[in-house]
Amino acid sequence: MQQREMYINGQWVGAISGRTFDTLNPSTAEPLGTVPYAEAADVDAAVRAARAAFPVWSGMTQGERNKVLYRIAALIREHADEMATLEGLEHGTPYKDAFGVCMGAAEKFEWSANAAAALKGDELPVPNANTLSFIKREPVGVIGFITPWNLPTIMTAVKLAPAIALGNCAVLKPPSINSLIGLKFAEVISKAEGLPNGVVNVITGSGSVAGNALASHPDVDMIGFTGSSETGKSILAAAAPTVKKTVMELGGNNPVIIYPDADLDAAIKVLAWRQFNNSGQHCSGPGRYYVHERVYDAFAAKFKVYAESLKIGDPSDKSVDMGPLVSREHQQKVSGYIQGAIDDGATLLFGGEASENGFFITPTILTNCRHDMTAAREEIFGPVAVLIPFTDADDIVALANDSNYGLCAHVWTRDIGAGMKLIGKLHVGAVFINCQMLTNEQPWGTSIRESGIGKEGGTYGLLEFTDAKLVCVNYN
Ligand code: NAP
């Protein structure tokens, strides 16, 4: 059992109350580590440390901060093996994926440093002579980050890297079930020479106590959150009395449209991988598939062949493709969706088994599903493909848009013109046609429906961490 402390103001400390809680290994359901249980007083200490560090860090030049970000990237690469192993132990990500995720996390720091250095100001036209008006970009200040358990290392990097690149200071609350991963991240980056104490603080505790204290803290300027839409609403309510800026990356139930002329092999390669990689715990992954009846059986058969090929097991085994789900609670929730769909008339084409030892669910394919089934309406966030046949392409946009969410949509067709025409009709924040990728340059997130507010990643996401101060100078 690992015993860890929190990282506040450059020091490793326990909770003021002395309280702790355990995290589990999802492959075995056995305790893995013990971490401090932060409450309001601990959150306050972390926020005060970040506030004190802010003038120092934001006062450094971009070049000085970038040297530190580059050192952080190098440290993540140096410790990627330990970080990836822990991501497997506490989150269940197979090592081969987790290692790549750590490399991606390192890149986020380099990319953010370079992108911050490339930001330019704007001069604004004014009608008066001898008057100059321009935008001065300033860091927002102290940012509270509250992150979800899916892919915890990259979720941390995608938030922290751009925020600190621009001179902000941070207090991060990782998901309680993946607290060790959050503290490991703090340990690795704390070794970066030149990173002042208090710029990054990591506290562990429950969402309802530590997360809520962070979201409502009067000296936090902004909340960056990724998680479910329900929690997002609580955080918005907590942040409202002090009118904080928020960037919210929330839930999704992403429609996939498979036209009869789609390249099914190419589609399966992308979609089935996304469906089962990380046990389907991906916000950008497929949620519900509308498959044209002419290719429905062929698509389902190819999906099954893919699912059969996967090796499920211990994430530390480098040949394993799929590990467990993150928790017993999540495993039971996903199993409930599978059983509910079967009760509603769906056919279990493959998988559907939940383990008693550990939190595994085998890759699952449900056929003969309908749009009105709960499994098609809600976010399953697991290794479950929900295949719905359709006949009339004219109906499909209405079905795709009929959701509380609007995160992204996937379209597969060889008729690029037909695909392009859907872009404007799909009420979502991102459309992937015949591919799916998310690069450092591409912004993610949307303000559509209950899927969030604002952007994360790319230059759009970077700008969320700055305040555009208007300056107007008359120099007559
Ligand atoms: P979650 O239950 O909403 O939890 C997310 C974070 O919020 C955790 O750190 C949690 O702490 C904390 N929290 C819970 N209640 C809180 C409260 N009242 N006040 C402040 N913080 C609180 O989400 P999850 O189950 O970890 O993650 C899965 C969800 O994230 C899915 O809905 C998925 O779609 C979404 N997601 C969205 C994106 C995107 O980019 N849009 C990306 C990834 C995931 P505890 O862990 O202690 O409960």
Give the number of DSSP strands. 21
- Helix content range: 25-40%
- Low-confidence runs of at least 5 consecutive residues: none
**Average of per-residue pLDDT values:** 97
> How many structural domains?
2
Write up this protein.
With 476 residues, the chain is an alpha/beta fold. Helices cover 40% and strands 21% of the residues. It has 2 domains: 2-251 and 451-473, 3-Layer(aba) Sandwich (Aldehyde Dehydrogenase, Chain A, domain 1); 254-402 and 408-439, Aldehyde Dehydrogenase, Chain A, domain 2 (3-Layer(aba) Sandwich), CATH 3.40.309. It has a 7-stranded mixed β-sheet, sandwiched between helices. Strands 10-9-8-11-12-20 form a 6-stranded mixed β-sheet, sandwiched between helices. Helix 9 (264-276) links the parallel strand 13 (255-258) and strand 14. The longest helix is centred in the first third of the chain and has 24 residues, at 95-118. Residues 146-150, 173, 175-177, 206-208, 211-212, 215, 226-228, 231, 234-235, 249-252, 283, 379, 381, 407, 444-445, 452 line the site of NADP nicotinamide-adenine-dinucleotide phosphate.
Keywords:
40% helix, Aldehyde Dehydrogenase, Chain A, domain 1, 2 domains, 15 helices, 476 residues, alpha/beta, six-stranded mixed beta sheet, Aldehyde Dehydrogenase, Chain A, domain 2, binds NADP nicotinamide-adenine-dinucleotide phosphate, single chain
